[in-house]
Specification:
- The complex is a heterodimer.
- Chain A contains 1 helix and 10 strands, in the order ββββββββββα.
- Chain A has a 5-stranded mixed β-barrel with strand order 6-7-8-10-9. In chain A, strands 2, 3, 4 and 5 form a 4-stranded antiparallel β-sheet that branches.
- In chain A, strand 3 and strand 4 form a beta hairpin.
- The longest helix of chain A is centred in the C-terminal third of the chain and has 5 residues.
- Chain B is α/β, with parallel strands linked by helices.
- Chain B folds into 2 domains: 136 residues, 3-Layer(aba) Sandwich (Peroxisomal Thiolase, Chain A, domain 1); 221 residues, Peroxisomal Thiolase, Chain A, domain 1 (3-Layer(aba) Sandwich), CATH 3.40.47.10.
- Chain B has 13 helices and 11 strands.
- In chain B, helix 1 packs across helix 2 and helix 9 crosses helix 10.
- In chain B, 63% of the residues are buried.
- The chains are: A mainly beta, B alpha/beta.
- At the A-B interface, strand 6, strand 7 and strand 8 of A face helix 4, helix 5 and strand 5 of B.
- The structure holds zinc ion.
Chain lengths: 141, 384
Protein backbone atom coordinates (compact mmCIF):
# COMPACT_ATOMS: atom_id res chain seq x y z
CA UNK A 1 0.00 0.00 0.00
CA UNK A 2 1.45 3.29 -1.02
CA UNK A 3 0.63 6.75 0.16
CA UNK A 4 0.50 9.68 -2.16
CA UNK A 5 0.66 13.27 -1.14
CA UNK A 6 -1.24 15.62 -3.33
CA UNK A 7 -1.01 19.37 -3.39
CA UNK A 8 -3.91 21.58 -4.31
CA UNK A 9 -3.55 23.37 -7.61
CA UNK A 10 -5.43 26.03 -9.59
CA UNK A 11 -8.14 24.77 -11.94
CA UNK A 12 -6.38 26.91 -14.54
CA UNK A 13 -2.76 27.86 -13.86
CA UNK A 14 -2.95 30.91 -16.14
CA UNK A 15 -5.68 32.50 -14.01
CA UNK A 16 -4.53 32.31 -10.41
CA UNK A 17 -1.73 31.61 -7.96
CA UNK A 18 -2.26 29.87 -4.61
CA UNK A 19 0.51 31.38 -2.48
CA UNK A 20 -0.40 34.12 -2.10
CA UNK A 21 -3.97 33.63 -3.36
CA UNK A 22 -4.23 36.05 -6.26
CA UNK A 23 -5.92 36.32 -9.62
CA UNK A 24 -3.54 36.99 -12.50
CA UNK A 25 -4.09 39.68 -15.09
CA UNK A 26 -2.09 41.17 -17.90
CA UNK A 27 -0.92 44.80 -17.83
CA UNK A 28 0.00 46.80 -20.91
CA UNK A 29 3.40 48.49 -20.81
CA UNK A 30 2.16 51.22 -23.17
CA UNK A 31 -1.15 52.36 -21.69
CA UNK A 32 -1.33 50.60 -18.34
CA UNK A 33 -4.63 48.83 -19.05
CA UNK A 34 -5.06 45.70 -16.93
CA UNK A 35 -7.24 42.80 -18.10
CA UNK A 36 -8.58 39.62 -16.58
CA UNK A 37 -8.20 36.93 -17.75
CA UNK A 38 -4.70 37.59 -19.13
CA UNK A 39 -4.78 38.17 -22.89
CA UNK A 40 -2.30 38.18 -25.74
CA UNK A 41 -3.17 41.75 -26.70
CA UNK A 42 -4.20 44.95 -24.97
CA UNK A 43 -7.87 45.79 -25.55
CA UNK A 44 -7.19 49.33 -24.31
CA UNK A 45 -4.71 50.51 -26.95
CA UNK A 46 -4.13 47.46 -29.21
CA UNK A 47 -0.64 48.81 -29.76
CA UNK A 48 1.09 45.45 -29.67
CA UNK A 49 3.12 46.63 -26.67
CA UNK A 50 4.44 44.02 -24.29
CA UNK A 51 2.07 42.69 -21.65
CA UNK A 52 3.21 41.77 -18.17
CA UNK A 53 1.46 39.15 -16.06
CA UNK A 54 0.56 40.78 -12.74
CA UNK A 55 -1.25 39.70 -9.56
CA UNK A 56 -4.53 41.57 -9.07
CA UNK A 57 -5.89 43.20 -5.96
CA UNK A 58 -8.06 40.97 -3.80
CA UNK A 59 -10.43 43.78 -2.83
CA UNK A 60 -13.52 44.29 -4.97
CA UNK A 61 -16.99 45.78 -4.97
CA UNK A 62 -20.21 44.60 -6.55
CA UNK A 63 -21.07 46.36 -9.82
CA UNK A 64 -24.22 44.28 -10.27
CA UNK A 65 -25.53 40.93 -9.12
CA UNK A 66 -28.31 38.40 -9.40
CA UNK A 67 -29.62 35.52 -7.37
CA UNK A 68 -29.76 32.57 -9.75
CA UNK A 69 -32.86 30.50 -8.95
CA UNK A 70 -32.92 28.22 -11.99
CA UNK A 71 -29.93 26.59 -13.67
CA UNK A 72 -29.32 23.60 -15.93
CA UNK A 73 -29.50 20.17 -14.28
CA UNK A 74 -26.62 19.43 -11.89
CA UNK A 75 -26.13 23.03 -10.78
CA UNK A 76 -27.26 23.72 -7.21
CA UNK A 77 -29.39 26.84 -6.75
CA UNK A 78 -29.75 29.46 -5.43
CA UNK A 79 -26.40 31.20 -5.75
CA UNK A 80 -25.31 34.81 -6.02
CA UNK A 81 -23.55 35.71 -9.26
CA UNK A 82 -21.98 39.16 -9.56
CA UNK A 83 -20.00 41.45 -11.76
CA UNK A 84 -17.20 42.39 -9.41
CA UNK A 85 -15.11 45.52 -9.96
CA UNK A 86 -11.50 45.62 -8.75
CA UNK A 87 -11.22 49.42 -8.56
CA UNK A 88 -7.46 49.71 -8.03
CA UNK A 89 -6.79 47.61 -11.13
CA UNK A 90 -9.82 48.93 -13.09
CA UNK A 91 -10.79 45.34 -13.85
CA UNK A 92 -14.33 43.90 -13.95
CA UNK A 93 -14.94 40.18 -13.78
CA UNK A 94 -17.74 37.75 -13.09
CA UNK A 95 -17.78 35.50 -10.05
CA UNK A 96 -20.03 34.01 -7.43
CA UNK A 97 -20.33 35.80 -4.09
CA UNK A 98 -20.66 33.98 -0.76
CA UNK A 99 -20.87 34.92 2.90
CA UNK A 100 -24.05 36.93 2.58
CA UNK A 101 -27.69 35.93 2.36
CA UNK A 102 -29.11 36.49 -1.14
CA UNK A 103 -31.58 39.08 0.14
CA UNK A 104 -28.75 41.09 1.77
CA UNK A 105 -26.52 41.53 -1.27
CA UNK A 106 -26.30 45.14 -2.46
CA UNK A 107 -24.79 47.17 -5.26
CA UNK A 108 -21.35 48.60 -4.40
CA UNK A 109 -20.96 46.13 -1.53
CA UNK A 110 -17.27 45.39 -0.76
CA UNK A 111 -16.11 41.82 -1.35
CA UNK A 112 -12.76 40.02 -1.13
CA UNK A 113 -11.21 37.26 -3.19
CA UNK A 114 -11.18 33.72 -1.85
CA UNK A 115 -10.13 30.43 -3.38
CA UNK A 116 -12.28 27.33 -3.03
CA UNK A 117 -12.33 23.75 -4.28
CA UNK A 118 -14.14 23.36 -7.59
CA UNK A 119 -13.26 19.79 -8.48
CA UNK A 120 -10.77 16.96 -8.36
CA UNK A 121 -8.21 16.17 -11.05
CA UNK A 122 -7.71 12.62 -12.38
CA UNK A 123 -4.67 12.24 -10.07
CA UNK A 124 -6.70 13.13 -7.00
CA UNK A 125 -5.45 16.70 -6.73
CA UNK A 126 -7.96 19.21 -5.48
CA UNK A 127 -8.56 21.95 -8.04
CA UNK A 128 -9.07 25.45 -6.71
CA UNK A 129 -11.17 28.14 -8.32
CA UNK A 130 -12.03 31.68 -7.29
CA UNK A 131 -15.02 33.48 -5.86
CA UNK A 132 -15.62 36.51 -3.64
CA UNK A 133 -16.74 36.75 -0.04
CA UNK A 134 -18.71 39.63 1.42
CA UNK A 135 -16.96 41.49 4.23
CA UNK A 136 -18.36 40.30 7.58
CA UNK A 137 -18.73 43.83 8.99
CA UNK A 138 -20.75 44.88 5.95
CA UNK A 139 -23.04 41.90 6.35
CA UNK A 140 -23.59 42.66 10.02
CA UNK A 141 -24.33 46.33 9.33
CA UNK B 1 -20.25 50.35 -49.66
CA UNK B 2 -23.68 49.06 -50.59
CA UNK B 3 -24.52 45.75 -52.20
CA UNK B 4 -27.55 45.08 -54.36
CA UNK B 5 -30.68 44.39 -52.31
CA UNK B 6 -32.21 40.91 -52.18
CA UNK B 7 -35.87 40.57 -53.07
CA UNK B 8 -38.03 38.52 -50.73
CA UNK B 9 -40.02 36.32 -53.09
CA UNK B 10 -41.70 34.32 -50.36
CA UNK B 11 -41.67 33.53 -46.64
CA UNK B 12 -43.09 30.76 -44.49
CA UNK B 13 -42.87 29.41 -40.99
CA UNK B 14 -44.49 26.93 -38.69
CA UNK B 15 -45.98 27.94 -35.38
CA UNK B 16 -43.28 28.02 -32.73
CA UNK B 17 -43.85 25.95 -29.62
CA UNK B 18 -43.11 22.69 -27.89
CA UNK B 19 -43.48 19.76 -30.26
CA UNK B 20 -43.34 16.04 -29.45
CA UNK B 21 -40.24 14.01 -30.19
CA UNK B 22 -41.57 12.69 -33.49
CA UNK B 23 -41.66 16.22 -34.90
CA UNK B 24 -38.08 16.36 -36.11
CA UNK B 25 -35.74 19.19 -36.93
CA UNK B 26 -35.74 18.09 -40.56
CA UNK B 27 -39.52 17.81 -40.69
CA UNK B 28 -40.07 21.29 -39.26
CA UNK B 29 -37.56 22.79 -41.69
CA UNK B 30 -39.22 21.07 -44.66
CA UNK B 31 -42.65 22.41 -43.67
CA UNK B 32 -41.35 25.98 -43.35
CA UNK B 33 -39.45 25.72 -46.64
CA UNK B 34 -42.49 24.42 -48.53
CA UNK B 35 -44.57 27.27 -47.11
CA UNK B 36 -42.02 29.83 -48.35
CA UNK B 37 -41.84 28.21 -51.80
CA UNK B 38 -45.61 28.12 -52.02
CA UNK B 39 -45.81 31.77 -50.93
CA UNK B 40 -43.47 32.62 -53.82
CA UNK B 41 -45.18 30.29 -56.28
CA UNK B 42 -41.77 28.70 -56.85
CA UNK B 43 -40.77 25.11 -57.46
CA UNK B 44 -37.78 23.38 -55.90
CA UNK B 45 -36.05 23.36 -59.29
CA UNK B 46 -35.68 27.15 -59.14
CA UNK B 47 -33.47 27.11 -56.03
CA UNK B 48 -29.72 27.61 -56.55
CA UNK B 49 -28.54 27.17 -52.97
CA UNK B 50 -29.71 26.46 -49.42
CA UNK B 51 -28.50 28.41 -46.35
CA UNK B 52 -29.43 26.93 -43.00
CA UNK B 53 -29.08 28.58 -39.58
CA UNK B 54 -29.15 26.35 -36.48
CA UNK B 55 -27.25 25.83 -33.23
CA UNK B 56 -28.17 22.46 -31.77
CA UNK B 57 -28.98 20.61 -35.01
CA UNK B 58 -25.70 18.74 -35.19
CA UNK B 59 -23.32 18.24 -38.12
CA UNK B 60 -24.69 18.84 -41.64
CA UNK B 61 -28.24 19.47 -40.46
CA UNK B 62 -28.77 21.53 -43.60
CA UNK B 63 -27.84 18.61 -45.81
CA UNK B 64 -30.15 16.32 -43.83
CA UNK B 65 -32.94 18.82 -44.46
CA UNK B 66 -32.04 19.08 -48.17
CA UNK B 67 -32.25 15.32 -48.52
CA UNK B 68 -35.82 15.34 -47.18
CA UNK B 69 -36.90 18.50 -48.96
CA UNK B 70 -35.60 17.54 -52.40
CA UNK B 71 -32.71 20.00 -52.60
CA UNK B 72 -30.13 17.20 -52.38
CA UNK B 73 -27.15 17.82 -54.62
CA UNK B 74 -27.47 21.61 -54.39
CA UNK B 75 -24.94 23.84 -52.52
CA UNK B 76 -25.89 23.71 -48.82
CA UNK B 77 -24.17 25.54 -45.98
CA UNK B 78 -24.75 25.54 -42.21
CA UNK B 79 -24.46 28.76 -40.22
CA UNK B 80 -23.95 28.93 -36.45
CA UNK B 81 -23.87 32.29 -34.64
CA UNK B 82 -25.97 31.15 -31.68
CA UNK B 83 -29.22 33.13 -31.53
CA UNK B 84 -28.16 35.12 -34.62
CA UNK B 85 -27.70 31.97 -36.73
CA UNK B 86 -30.84 32.39 -38.84
CA UNK B 87 -30.06 36.04 -39.58
CA UNK B 88 -26.47 35.11 -40.40
CA UNK B 89 -27.77 32.62 -42.96
CA UNK B 90 -29.91 35.44 -44.44
CA UNK B 91 -26.77 37.57 -44.64
CA UNK B 92 -24.76 34.91 -46.45
CA UNK B 93 -27.58 34.35 -48.95
CA UNK B 94 -27.86 38.11 -49.56
CA UNK B 95 -24.09 38.28 -50.20
CA UNK B 96 -24.24 35.32 -52.62
CA UNK B 97 -27.03 37.00 -54.59
CA UNK B 98 -25.24 40.35 -54.65
CA UNK B 99 -22.05 38.63 -55.81
CA UNK B 100 -23.91 37.01 -58.69
CA UNK B 101 -23.18 33.49 -57.44
CA UNK B 102 -26.88 32.63 -57.07
CA UNK B 103 -30.15 34.12 -58.31
CA UNK B 104 -32.52 32.22 -56.02
CA UNK B 105 -31.44 31.32 -52.49
CA UNK B 106 -33.50 29.55 -49.87
CA UNK B 107 -32.79 30.37 -46.22
CA UNK B 108 -34.06 28.18 -43.39
CA UNK B 109 -33.69 28.91 -39.69
CA UNK B 110 -34.58 25.93 -37.55
CA UNK B 111 -34.16 24.58 -34.02
CA UNK B 112 -35.37 21.61 -32.03
CA UNK B 113 -34.71 22.56 -28.42
CA UNK B 114 -37.31 21.04 -26.14
CA UNK B 115 -35.78 17.56 -26.31
CA UNK B 116 -32.18 18.70 -25.76
CA UNK B 117 -32.03 21.91 -23.70
CA UNK B 118 -33.16 22.12 -20.07
CA UNK B 119 -32.97 24.88 -17.45
CA UNK B 120 -31.85 27.58 -19.88
CA UNK B 121 -29.08 28.09 -22.40
CA UNK B 122 -25.51 28.76 -21.34
CA UNK B 123 -22.14 29.51 -22.92
CA UNK B 124 -19.81 26.89 -24.35
CA UNK B 125 -18.15 24.88 -21.55
CA UNK B 126 -14.77 26.14 -22.81
CA UNK B 127 -15.69 29.76 -22.06
CA UNK B 128 -14.52 31.11 -18.70
CA UNK B 129 -18.00 32.45 -17.91
CA UNK B 130 -19.28 28.86 -17.83
CA UNK B 131 -16.73 27.99 -15.13
CA UNK B 132 -18.15 30.61 -12.75
CA UNK B 133 -21.80 29.59 -13.07
CA UNK B 134 -23.00 31.92 -15.80
CA UNK B 135 -26.34 31.27 -17.44
CA UNK B 136 -27.85 33.69 -19.96
CA UNK B 137 -30.65 34.74 -17.63
CA UNK B 138 -28.07 35.78 -15.01
CA UNK B 139 -26.34 38.16 -17.39
CA UNK B 140 -29.60 39.91 -18.22
CA UNK B 141 -30.62 40.00 -14.57
CA UNK B 142 -27.39 41.81 -13.72
CA UNK B 143 -28.06 44.16 -16.63
CA UNK B 144 -31.54 44.89 -15.30
CA UNK B 145 -30.39 45.61 -11.76
CA UNK B 146 -27.69 48.02 -12.92
CA UNK B 147 -30.10 49.67 -15.38
CA UNK B 148 -32.66 50.31 -12.66
CA UNK B 149 -30.02 51.82 -10.36
CA UNK B 150 -28.41 53.98 -13.05
CA UNK B 151 -31.57 55.32 -14.70
CA UNK B 152 -34.20 55.26 -11.98
CA UNK B 153 -36.19 52.70 -13.94
CA UNK B 154 -38.64 50.46 -12.11
CA UNK B 155 -39.21 46.73 -12.10
CA UNK B 156 -42.73 47.39 -13.41
CA UNK B 157 -41.41 49.32 -16.41
CA UNK B 158 -39.11 46.45 -17.36
CA UNK B 159 -41.91 43.92 -16.92
CA UNK B 160 -44.03 46.06 -19.29
CA UNK B 161 -41.95 44.69 -22.18
CA UNK B 162 -43.42 41.23 -21.59
CA UNK B 163 -46.97 42.56 -21.26
CA UNK B 164 -46.62 44.50 -24.52
CA UNK B 165 -45.11 41.65 -26.53
CA UNK B 166 -47.69 39.15 -25.33
CA UNK B 167 -50.44 41.60 -26.26
CA UNK B 168 -49.00 41.82 -29.78
CA UNK B 169 -48.83 38.09 -30.40
CA UNK B 170 -52.51 37.61 -29.62
CA UNK B 171 -52.74 38.50 -33.32
CA UNK B 172 -49.91 36.23 -34.51
CA UNK B 173 -51.02 32.72 -35.52
CA UNK B 174 -47.36 31.58 -35.60
CA UNK B 175 -46.65 32.62 -32.00
CA UNK B 176 -46.04 30.07 -29.26
CA UNK B 177 -48.17 32.20 -26.89
CA UNK B 178 -51.32 33.89 -28.14
CA UNK B 179 -52.87 35.02 -24.88
CA UNK B 180 -52.46 38.41 -23.17
CA UNK B 181 -50.79 38.62 -19.76
CA UNK B 182 -50.96 41.39 -17.19
CA UNK B 183 -48.29 43.11 -15.15
CA UNK B 184 -49.10 41.18 -11.97
CA UNK B 185 -48.50 37.88 -13.76
CA UNK B 186 -45.02 39.01 -14.81
CA UNK B 187 -44.13 40.32 -11.35
CA UNK B 188 -45.47 37.25 -9.56
CA UNK B 189 -43.93 34.66 -11.86
CA UNK B 190 -41.44 32.16 -10.49
CA UNK B 191 -38.02 33.89 -10.08
CA UNK B 192 -35.35 32.69 -12.52
CA UNK B 193 -32.50 35.12 -11.90
CA UNK B 194 -33.54 38.00 -9.70
CA UNK B 195 -34.97 40.46 -10.49
CA UNK B 196 -36.13 38.55 -13.59
CA UNK B 197 -38.85 35.91 -13.42
CA UNK B 198 -40.17 33.30 -15.79
CA UNK B 199 -42.18 35.75 -17.91
CA UNK B 200 -39.14 38.01 -18.36
CA UNK B 201 -37.45 35.12 -20.20
CA UNK B 202 -38.10 33.83 -23.71
CA UNK B 203 -39.14 30.17 -23.72
CA UNK B 204 -37.22 27.13 -24.89
CA UNK B 205 -38.96 26.40 -28.20
CA UNK B 206 -39.05 24.32 -31.35
CA UNK B 207 -39.69 25.85 -34.74
CA UNK B 208 -38.62 26.74 -38.24
CA UNK B 209 -38.89 29.71 -40.59
CA UNK B 210 -37.87 30.09 -44.23
CA UNK B 211 -37.20 32.94 -46.64
CA UNK B 212 -36.81 32.73 -50.43
CA UNK B 213 -34.43 35.49 -51.59
CA UNK B 214 -33.92 36.50 -55.23
CA UNK B 215 -31.83 38.72 -57.44
CA UNK B 216 -33.75 40.57 -60.20
CA UNK B 217 -32.84 37.67 -62.51
CA UNK B 218 -34.22 35.28 -59.90
CA UNK B 219 -37.52 37.15 -59.82
CA UNK B 220 -37.73 36.77 -63.60
CA UNK B 221 -37.01 33.05 -63.28
CA UNK B 222 -39.92 32.78 -60.84
CA UNK B 223 -42.16 34.90 -63.07
CA UNK B 224 -42.68 37.46 -60.30
CA UNK B 225 -43.48 40.89 -61.70
CA UNK B 226 -45.18 42.44 -58.66
CA UNK B 227 -43.17 44.54 -56.24
CA UNK B 228 -41.66 42.60 -53.34
CA UNK B 229 -40.14 43.69 -50.02
CA UNK B 230 -36.37 43.87 -50.23
CA UNK B 231 -33.52 43.13 -47.86
CA UNK B 232 -31.41 46.27 -48.27
CA UNK B 233 -28.53 45.12 -46.11
CA UNK B 234 -27.56 42.87 -43.24
CA UNK B 235 -25.02 44.08 -40.69
CA UNK B 236 -22.89 41.64 -38.72
CA UNK B 237 -20.55 42.53 -35.87
CA UNK B 238 -19.12 40.69 -32.89
CA UNK B 239 -18.58 41.78 -29.31
CA UNK B 240 -15.32 43.48 -28.44
CA UNK B 241 -13.12 42.83 -25.41
CA UNK B 242 -14.03 45.34 -22.73
CA UNK B 243 -11.46 47.16 -20.61
CA UNK B 244 -12.09 49.31 -17.56
CA UNK B 245 -15.16 49.92 -15.44
CA UNK B 246 -17.59 51.57 -17.88
CA UNK B 247 -21.38 51.30 -18.12
CA UNK B 248 -22.17 47.56 -18.33
CA UNK B 249 -25.27 48.49 -20.37
CA UNK B 250 -23.39 50.62 -22.89
CA UNK B 251 -24.25 48.14 -25.68
CA UNK B 252 -21.49 49.50 -27.87
CA UNK B 253 -21.81 46.31 -29.91
CA UNK B 254 -25.39 47.34 -30.77
CA UNK B 255 -24.24 50.84 -31.71
CA UNK B 256 -21.65 49.37 -34.06
CA UNK B 257 -24.18 46.95 -35.58
CA UNK B 258 -26.57 49.83 -36.20
CA UNK B 259 -23.96 52.05 -37.79
CA UNK B 260 -22.87 49.23 -40.06
CA UNK B 261 -26.37 48.51 -41.26
CA UNK B 262 -27.20 52.19 -41.89
CA UNK B 263 -24.10 52.33 -44.07
CA UNK B 264 -24.88 49.07 -45.87
CA UNK B 265 -28.54 49.87 -46.50
CA UNK B 266 -28.51 53.61 -47.09
CA UNK B 267 -31.35 53.85 -44.58
CA UNK B 268 -31.09 56.01 -41.47
CA UNK B 269 -32.43 55.42 -37.97
CA UNK B 270 -35.15 58.03 -38.52
CA UNK B 271 -36.52 56.00 -41.46
CA UNK B 272 -37.33 52.92 -39.34
CA UNK B 273 -41.07 52.35 -38.89
CA UNK B 274 -40.89 49.15 -36.83
CA UNK B 275 -38.33 46.90 -35.17
CA UNK B 276 -38.19 43.17 -34.62
CA UNK B 277 -35.85 43.19 -31.62
CA UNK B 278 -34.08 40.29 -29.95
CA UNK B 279 -35.99 40.38 -26.64
CA UNK B 280 -34.59 37.12 -25.28
CA UNK B 281 -35.22 38.82 -21.93
CA UNK B 282 -37.36 41.89 -21.17
CA UNK B 283 -34.42 44.11 -20.24
CA UNK B 284 -32.57 43.11 -23.41
CA UNK B 285 -35.16 44.81 -25.63
CA UNK B 286 -34.65 48.03 -23.68
CA UNK B 287 -30.86 48.25 -23.61
CA UNK B 288 -30.46 47.09 -27.23
CA UNK B 289 -32.91 49.68 -28.56
CA UNK B 290 -30.90 52.28 -26.65
CA UNK B 291 -27.59 50.90 -27.92
CA UNK B 292 -28.85 51.17 -31.50
CA UNK B 293 -29.72 54.80 -30.83
CA UNK B 294 -33.42 54.26 -31.61
CA UNK B 295 -34.48 55.13 -28.05
CA UNK B 296 -32.75 57.78 -25.89
CA UNK B 297 -30.27 56.39 -23.36
CA UNK B 298 -31.91 55.51 -20.07
CA UNK B 299 -35.45 56.10 -21.34
CA UNK B 300 -36.28 52.71 -22.83
CA UNK B 301 -38.06 51.35 -19.78
CA UNK B 302 -40.16 54.49 -19.42
CA UNK B 303 -40.88 54.45 -23.17
CA UNK B 304 -42.17 50.91 -22.89
CA UNK B 305 -44.42 51.65 -19.93
CA UNK B 306 -45.76 54.75 -21.75
CA UNK B 307 -46.70 52.66 -24.80
CA UNK B 308 -44.24 54.30 -27.21
CA UNK B 309 -42.94 50.88 -28.36
CA UNK B 310 -46.37 49.27 -28.62
CA UNK B 311 -48.56 48.93 -31.70
CA UNK B 312 -49.83 52.41 -32.52
CA UNK B 313 -46.97 53.98 -30.56
CA UNK B 314 -44.07 56.14 -31.67
CA UNK B 315 -41.88 53.19 -32.75
CA UNK B 316 -43.55 49.76 -32.54
CA UNK B 317 -41.14 47.07 -31.34
CA UNK B 318 -41.89 43.38 -31.80
CA UNK B 319 -45.37 43.45 -33.34
CA UNK B 320 -44.90 39.68 -33.80
CA UNK B 321 -44.66 39.18 -30.04
CA UNK B 322 -40.90 38.94 -30.17
CA UNK B 323 -38.89 36.13 -28.68
CA UNK B 324 -40.78 36.44 -25.40
CA UNK B 325 -44.10 35.50 -26.93
CA UNK B 326 -43.57 34.20 -30.50
CA UNK B 327 -41.04 31.81 -28.91
CA UNK B 328 -37.31 31.43 -29.38
CA UNK B 329 -36.08 28.35 -31.22
CA UNK B 330 -32.66 29.99 -31.34
CA UNK B 331 -31.50 29.23 -34.89
CA UNK B 332 -34.95 29.99 -36.33
CA UNK B 333 -35.45 33.41 -34.76
CA UNK B 334 -33.54 35.53 -37.29
CA UNK B 335 -35.44 33.98 -40.20
CA UNK B 336 -38.76 34.41 -38.35
CA UNK B 337 -37.99 38.11 -37.89
CA UNK B 338 -37.54 38.44 -41.67
CA UNK B 339 -40.88 36.65 -42.18
CA UNK B 340 -42.54 39.17 -39.87
CA UNK B 341 -40.95 42.19 -41.55
CA UNK B 342 -42.07 40.80 -44.92
CA UNK B 343 -45.68 40.43 -43.78
CA UNK B 344 -45.59 43.89 -42.21
CA UNK B 345 -44.14 45.53 -45.34
CA UNK B 346 -46.69 43.79 -47.56
CA UNK B 347 -49.51 44.92 -45.28
CA UNK B 348 -50.39 41.29 -44.54
CA UNK B 349 -49.92 41.32 -40.75
CA UNK B 350 -53.59 41.41 -39.81
CA UNK B 351 -54.38 42.54 -36.29
CA UNK B 352 -50.73 43.27 -35.54
CA UNK B 353 -50.17 45.41 -38.66
CA UNK B 354 -48.04 48.53 -38.21
CA UNK B 355 -49.96 51.05 -40.30
CA UNK B 356 -48.01 52.45 -43.20
CA UNK B 357 -44.88 50.39 -42.51
CA UNK B 358 -42.30 51.17 -45.19
CA UNK B 359 -38.98 50.30 -43.53
CA UNK B 360 -38.22 47.74 -40.83
CA UNK B 361 -35.20 46.63 -38.84
CA UNK B 362 -34.61 43.15 -37.42
CA UNK B 363 -31.93 42.69 -34.76
CA UNK B 364 -30.47 39.49 -33.30
CA UNK B 365 -27.80 39.08 -30.64
CA UNK B 366 -26.36 35.63 -30.29
CA UNK B 367 -24.23 34.11 -27.56
CA UNK B 368 -21.79 35.50 -25.04
CA UNK B 369 -18.01 35.48 -24.89
CA UNK B 370 -16.19 36.09 -21.61
CA UNK B 371 -14.95 39.65 -21.25
CA UNK B 372 -16.77 41.02 -24.31
CA UNK B 373 -20.01 42.91 -24.83
CA UNK B 374 -21.60 40.08 -26.81
CA UNK B 375 -21.16 37.22 -29.22
CA UNK B 376 -22.66 38.06 -32.59
CA UNK B 377 -25.08 40.82 -33.56
CA UNK B 378 -27.00 40.99 -36.84
CA UNK B 379 -29.07 43.87 -38.20
CA UNK B 380 -31.38 43.30 -41.19
CA UNK B 381 -32.89 46.37 -42.86
CA UNK B 382 -35.85 45.81 -45.17
CA UNK B 383 -38.07 48.14 -47.14
CA UNK B 384 -41.16 47.63 -49.24
ZN1 LIG C 1 -2.50 49.17 -23.96
Amino acid sequence: MSTTTTVDRPFRADLLTLDPPRLLGSRCSACGTTTFPPRGFCPGCRSGAELETVPLTTEGRICSFTVVRQAPPGVEVPYVLAQVDLPSDEVRLMATVVGVAPERVALDQPVALELHPVGTADDGTTLLGYRFRAHPEEVAA
Amino acid sequence: MTLAPAHVAGVGMIRFGKYPADVTLEGMAVRAARAALEDAGAGLDTVDGLYVGHVFGGPVAGQRIAAQLGLDGRPVSNHENYCASGATAVREAWVALAAGLHDVALVIGVEKMTDRVAGGVRPDPGDLDAAVGYVMAAGHAMSARRYMADHGATRDQIAAVAVKNHAHSVHNPYAQYQKPIDLAQVLDARPIAEPLGLLDCSPISDGAAAVLLCSPAGLRRLGITASTPRVLGVGLVSGSVQAGLGDPNAEDVSRRAGEQTWELSGVGPDDVDLVEMHDCFTIAEIVRMEGLGLVPRGEGAAWTAAGHTGLGGRLPVNPSGGLLSRGHPVGATGAAQVCELTWQLRGDAGGRQVEGARTGLAYCKGGTVNGTDGGSVTTVVMSR
